[in-house]
């Protein structure tokens, strides 16, 4: 069960990071980052299965590949942005984390722009 592995890795990484923080804060930060990356690696397999299921459902529902790809891209940008920003915030770099979040929001809007434009064109055609 993936959640058991994730919790175990998270707890072990946290305990070691807390113990190391007094002696070697840089190593503790690196350990916390590695712990986060390991957890992210574990969730990639179930995430792939979820994307496959969603893709099949979208095909069955007749949703175009273009729209589905945009939605996946926006969701991916959101998750990766949060992950990167949280790593920076955990390292004490709140300013960098805020810039990552801003960049993620801009990239999500950029990725969603074709869908938004298509929707606006559809509405304008109805008027």
UniProtKB/TrEMBL annotation:
Protein name: Stage III sporulation protein AD
Species assigned in the record: Anaerotignum faecicola
NCBIfam families found in the cross-reference section: spore_III_AD
Record keyword Nucleotide-binding present: no
Residues in the signal sequence: none
Taxonomic lineage: Bacteria, Bacillati, Bacillota, Clostridia, Lachnospirales
Keywords in alphabetical order: Membrane, Transmembrane, Transmembrane helix
TM segment ranges: 28-54, 66-85, 106-126
